[in-house]
Amino acid sequence: MISSARLTKVVLLLLVWSAANQLVQGQTYTVLHSFSGADGASPYAGLTLDSAGNLYGTTLQGGAFGAGTVFKLDSAGNESVLHSFTGGADGGSPRAGVILDSASNLYGTTANGGASNLGTVFKLDQSNQETVLHNFGVGHDGRSPWGGLLLDSVGNLYGTTVGGGAYNWGTIFRVNPNGSETVIRSFTGVADGADPRAELIRD
């Protein structure tokens, strides 16, 4: 004979299972956009959502020059290419997404392109005008940022590079609003790690 306490546990478990099952069955998967190549290809990173429900992201390849894009997807699923990277001075092959500031400017990194073909930190304003804030490959400033950026309250951008730095094992860097870059940490490739490929977080 089943005790009342055990019976209560069984009933509760069945209720939880039933609720979870209904939740799973109630979810709908919808394709918002399929990339064609001309509008971008191989989206590699996550998306950024604004207050109006628009999504912003990057593609590693595709676009007008084959070197990736920054795109916008509105709440109705309509896609707009905001910038097509040339792979030259403006950067190329973004592996990370973009972030938004309070003025709706977008910031991101490219793994390639720029003055030394070792990546950039870029800004895309509300008019979709792209500005390279920093070109990697000068001295020991790092190379090939794969991760996204972190924005602080005064407009400084923080990120990581896969390589470069004093020991050629990657860096943590800061780029201030006027584009001046500071290496905060050069990884040694020993006890402190090497080749960071992701964005930072702040406490």
Characterization of this structure:
This protein has 203 residues and is an alpha+beta fold. The chain has one domain: Neuraminidase, CATH 2.120.10. It is built from 1 helix and 12 strands. The strands form 3 sheets. Strands 1-2-3-4 form a 4-stranded antiparallel beta sheet, with no helix packed on it. Strands 5-6-7-8 form a 4-stranded antiparallel beta sheet, with no helix packed on it. It is globular, with a radius of gyration of 22 Å. It starts with a helix and ends in a 17-residue tail after the last strand. The mean pLDDT is 91.
Q: In CATH's first tier, which class applies?
A: Mainly Beta
Stated plainly, the CATH topology is called: Neuraminidase
- What is the CA-atom radius of gyration, in angstroms? 22 Å
CATH architectural label? 6 Propeller
Which homologous superfamily in CATH is the superfamily? TolB, C-terminal domain
Mean pLDDT: 91
Query: How many strand elements?
Result: 12
Q: What are the segments in which pLDDT stays under 50 over at least 5 consecutive residues?
A: none
Query: In percent, how helical is the residue content?
Result: 10-25%
Category by helix and strand content: alpha+beta
